[in-house]
What we know:
The chain is mainly alpha-helical. The protein has helices at 16-42, 52-80, 83-107, 110-138, 144-169, 176-195, 214-226, 229-249, 252-259, 264-289, 297-318, 321-324, 333-337, 342-370, 376-403, 408-429, 431-445, 474-481, 498-506, 519-534, 559-566, 591-598, 619-630; strands at residues 447-452, 463-467, 486-491, 510-512, 538-541, 571-577, 602-608.
Amino acid sequence: MSQPNQFSLLKQRRFAPFFWTQFLGAFNDNLFKTALVVIITFDALSWTTMEPSLITNLIPGLFILPYVLFSATAGQLADKFEKAGLTRFVKWLEVGIMCVAALGWVTHHLWLLIAAVVGMGVHSTLFGPVKYAYLPQQLKPEELIGGNGVTEMGTFVGILMGEVLGAVLVVQQPHGLLYEAAATVLVAALGLAAAYRIPHSPAPAPDLKISWNFVSESVRNINFSRKNRTVFLSMLGNSWFWFYGALILAQFPVYAKDYLHGDHGAFVLLLTIFSLGVGSGSLLCERLSGRKVEIGLVPFGSIGLTVFGIDLYFASLAFSGGALIPAGVHLDAFALLAQHGMWRILFDVLMIGMFGGFFIVPLFALIQLRCDPQHISRTIAGMNILNALFMVAAAGLAIVLLGQGLTIPQLFLVTALLNAVVAIYIFSLVPEFLMRFLAWLLIHTVHRVRTVDVERIPAEGAAVLVCNHVSYVDAIVIGATAPRPIRFVMDHRIFKLPLLGWIFRTARAIPIAPAKEDPWLMEKAYIDIAQALHEGELVCIFPEGQLTRTGDINDFKGGIAKIIDRTKVPVIPMALRGLWTHLLTRNRENVFGRAFRIGLRSRLELVVGEPVAPQDVTPEDLKQRVAALRGDWK
């Protein structure tokens, strides 16, 4: 069945006005901040006597300080009040802040501009919980990855355009500062106009009593999120990405000037490439994830952040321009592109951005999908607090390390290595991320998997899934294509296999044995199944009890009836097609002949049938349903 493209959301009122509002907000943030950074970096003496590197690391820190102070309050406001009206209030605030900034530009007053930086931090703090709580309220679960991807793409395209225009406008002589002032006020007004088109979005907790003590409320928000381990660790992963990004991006102005010997255009080029990377990575998430929240992309993104962060260090050392360009000469972007080694640097920056998109989009969608809907804005607010603390820590670490004599390329290397350590730690705490990555890797490299009616698997609540059993990788294929985690019931001997056993233990599979072999383990399996269903989880069993030796479906055993007798939940029949030629089956046909015939990427299908009510469940009926779903394609 054909699925609508994620860009079709841009034609719908439930998404389009919101998209343009947040796009223009991101655009204006960077139109303003980039112009300020360019002025400080390339015309510092006319504004301040402070070191440019200190100011360029201080500005991001001041921008995110309001996240620490006001995120808890912002989260409560977003849960208590209707989101469209609250968005309009925030946009009016942006207009006022940009008027203050315009006065700073016109009067050549640096500290007035820095006050506006803090003001825009307040604006973003108030809008953040509204932004990410709005999406799950207006979009279907299967639209979340696409909606988040388009939103993140729009955010980074807005950042890119703001950075480019801000850097270009402010250096126009003699009226660059006036152009910058007018542009920021105009964009704020356009954002306000877009906000008036956002549809009514009811408050999830209108009776919530606001606590103005931001310290106690911040602690309360974070403690509430910690109750859901997966959500909380996803929040930490999200915050780590902003730590990584803050360390890298804050160095770009001085890196472009002192290491690449470029002018402000070189700085804009680096930001452009990075933003294009994040935008393209965010959009690719929907295609790579199959329109579901695919957390297997998170480890994939993390690997890329480390690999290309390390290579950026070596590419910086290999850059030949530093030795060939005379001191005091700063090349424009086009001249830099002709320097040996510059394309490698740009490729690394592009890949860091792209893999950052793979890392961040699934985490956002997972938090939105799995946190308490009544507490979503406060959960996002808690995440923003963590983001702010991590980014403040990043700014502080950069100032300390650079002050101790580290070069900017060395700082890139330290950041990439830290990312590897943190990723290993997070994935050891939540093995589901790594397991999903291995499953995702399998079905996107070895196989081409198509799903049919997979939306029949419920987005929430308990159910038993039954499927034909063809190969040793059946569970991996099903788990990689299902929209939510599944507890598989599997023969206990599989857990002794080196790699597969680790994967299934990580996925919290339930081992089972025949009654004549180990009656205690069999009874324990039924208890574990009942407990999982009681907790609202999905459980998948293979009622044949063994792999097929002929490619045909064996008789279904009575275990399914015993499960349903204990716990009355729907049963969903499924069928795998195309796995009989897989190498990990009991197919007696010549292995090399099969491998040659199926080629490098075999085609598979998972077909999902209509749910069967518990009172109608019989092994014979379920076998007929699964056989009908599979058809003649083994």
